UniProtKB/TrEMBL annotation:
Cofactor(s) listed in the protein's UniProt record: Mg(2+)
SUPFAM superfamilies named among the record's database cross-references: Terpenoid synthases
GO molecular function, one term: D-glucose transmembrane transporter activity
InterPro entries according to UniProt: Isoprenoid_synthase_dom_sf (IPR008949), Squ/phyt_synthse (IPR002060), Squal_synth-like (IPR006449), Squalene/phytoene_synthase_CS (IPR019845), Trans_IPPS_euk-type (IPR044844), Trans_IPPS_HH (IPR033904)
Residues spanning the membrane: 304-327, 463-486
Protein name: Squalene synthase
Pathway involvement of the protein, from the record: Terpene metabolism; lanosterol biosynthesis; lanosterol from farnesyl diphosphate: step 1/3
Signal sequence segment: 1-17
Species of the source: Candolleomyces eurysporus
Source organism, top-level taxon: Eukaryota
GO-annotated biological processes: ergosterol biosynthetic process; farnesyl diphosphate metabolic process
Keywords: Lipid biosynthesis, Lipid metabolism, Membrane, Signal, Steroid biosynthesis, Steroid metabolism, Sterol biosynthesis, Sterol metabolism, Transferase, Transmembrane, Transmembrane helix
Family: Belongs to the phytoene/squalene synthase family.
Function noted in UniProt: Catalyzes the condensation of 2 farnesyl pyrophosphate (FPP) moieties to form squalene.
Length: 514
């Protein structure tokens, strides 16, 4: 930024000037890929890889910055992964390529990507990433140098993505339908162009050993991360895409507000209805926020976390900027540089990212108006973000600086803190009582009737007493029966002898004992 621009910013937006100055002074770039010590992993000592880094800077300067800070060979791997998918996307987006030429290129792009010397110069002259495909042979050369565990993932994701893109491109070319009809079609398209990117990144993170192996299996959460970013870009780029006849907003959303064509939305007389469409599109993107926050909590490597968290916080800030903003229909809008710098400096851990999401969710909710048909659903979507943060990071628990570093502290002024304190005291009392009971049971034999041991001894004596009484009753009953038989039948009668034998057998007595 030139000195004059700095001066103008200081006079017109002093707080933003301070933020940018802090970013320039204190935000350190943790890695310099050009340094000699980084050459083995960054590949900067090879001219072909230098060209790849240059292409990355041209396609996305902000994205390139976070890629370069990744540890080890992960930066070079993600750089090549991004360039491969950018090349594929360039072919798919180029409306000047006929379908009969585009189809075989798209469906075989995973083969071309590992074919030495392959490039393509058939893109239209106005395609901004045309030069990447003209010199694509340098990407092929570097990709073939990658470890097989990375290369196989990149080729697999490219294969899945190219078929999905080719299907949508062929449908548009052969049916004459230039619009996505249903929200499900919109989700599927975003899955192919962005959700698969999230899947590939998760698998690469796991393959590198910098994240747990199971992170690569979190397909649903990885897909949501990709869809949040992609849908945000689609919402923000409405005017640019419409002018270039690229239509990604599903008819199911904008058609129900009375529009027959997407370009009708930037007409001044349709501003009110266009605002409801915009609100509905933002609502659709917000449904991926909670999954994205869950995904970020899984990440343990700091550089990987920064790489994923910074675009996510930029996305929620962009959604807030677009929401209820009629300027979005007239031009391509972006968050201010100072705001972006602030987000980059704050996106360092899941709690801070959750706070950022909660802040922008509250701003979105504050902008919502009751006359909006999506008002209640917008409120619920924002409430889910609030709920996620409160569940994972309760607001009555404050993080304060202690002698040994940050530590949690309960805010006594919050009503929930009293409930927490009572429950904690109750749990401590139960724990003490349990320890006392466990201690008394181990000393029961010496404590007599005091405590649990005495109770067990009493129970045994009572059982023996009951058994003795029962045996006495049985013997008395048998004696009574014998007396009755002798009294009424006589000793010499056959009945007497049979009864005596039966009773003797029952009681186990010998003959001479009778």
């Amino acid at each position: 930024m030139a000195a004059v621009n700095w001066l103008v910013l200081l006079l017109t937006h002093p707080l933003e000037f301070r933020t940018l100055l802090q970013f320039w002074l204190y935000h350190e770039q943790k890695r310099d890929i050009k340094a000699i010590k980084e050459h083995p992993t960054s590949g900067w000592d090879r001219e072909s890889m230098q060209r790849c880094w240059a292409f990355l800077d041209k396609t996305s300067r902000s994205f390139a910055a976070v890629i370069k800070e990744l540890e080890g060979d992960l930066a070079r791997t993600i750089c090549l992964f991004y360039l491969v998918l950018r090349g594929l996307d360039t072919v798919e987006d180029d409306m000047t390529i006929p379908d009969h030429i585009k189809q075989p290129i798209l469906r075989n792009f995973h083969v071309h990507t590992v074919t030495p010397g392959w490039n393509y110069d058939g893109c239209g002259p106005n395609e901004k990433d045309r030069q990447l495909l003209v010199e694509y042979d340098v990407v092929v050369e570097e990709l073939n140098r990658l470890d097989a565990r990375y290369r196989d993932i990149i080729v697999d994701i490219c294969h899945k993505m190219e078929n999905g893109m080719a299907d949508f491109a062929h449908k548009a070319a052969t049916t004459g339908s230039i619009y996505l009809e249903a929200v499900s079609d919109y989700d599927l398209y975003c899955h192919y162009v962005a959700g698969l990117v999230g899947e590939g990144l998760s698998r690469i993170f796991s393959a590198s050993g910098k994240e747990a192996p199971w992170v690569g299996d979190q397909l649903e959460l990885s897909n949501s991360m990709g869809l949040l970013l992609q849908k945000t870009n689609i919402i923000r780029d409405y005017r640019e895409d419409t002018e270039e006849q690229r239509y990604f907003w599903p008819r199911e959303i904008w058609g129900k507000y009375g529009f027959k064509e997407m370009k009708e939305m930037y007409e001044p007389e349709n501003a009110q209805r266009a605002q409801w469409v915009q609100s509905n599109m933002v609502l659709d993107a917000l449904r991926h926020t909670v999954d994205s926050l869950d995904y970020l909590r899984f990440l343990k490597n700091q550089t990987v976390f920064n790489f994923c968290a910074i675009p996510a916080t930029m996305a929620i800030a962009t959604l807030e900027l677009c929401f209820m903003n009629p300027a979005m229909f007239q031009r391509n809008i972006k968050i201010r540089k100072a705001e972006a710098a602030s987000l980059i400096m704050k996106s360092t851990n899941p709690r801070e990212v959750g706070l950022i999401f909660r802040t922008y969710a509250r701003r979105i909710h504050a902008k919502a108006v009751p006359s909006d048909p999506n008002f209640l659903r917008i409120s619920v979507a924002c409430g889910k973000i609030e709920q996620w943060f409160e569940h994972n990071y309760p607001s009555f628990v404050k993080i304060v600086d202690g002698n040994s570093g940050p530590r949690p502290e309960i805010d006594g002024s919050d009503a929930r803190a009293k409930i927490y304190s009572l429950e904690r005291a109750r749990d401590q009392q139960l724990a003490v009582k349990k320890r006392q009971q466990d201690g008394s049971s181990s000393n029961g034999s010496s404590n007599g009737f005091n405590g649990l041991g005495g109770q067990e001894e009493t129970s045994v004596k009572e059982i023996i007493m009951y058994l003795g009484a029962a045996m006495g009753v049985i013997l008395a009953f048998c004696g009574t029966v014998i007396y009755v038989i002798i009294k009424f039948t006589g000793e010499t009668s056959p009945g007497y002898r049979g009864a005596v034998k039966a009773i003797s057998s029952t009681l186990g007595l010998e003959k001479n004992e009778l």
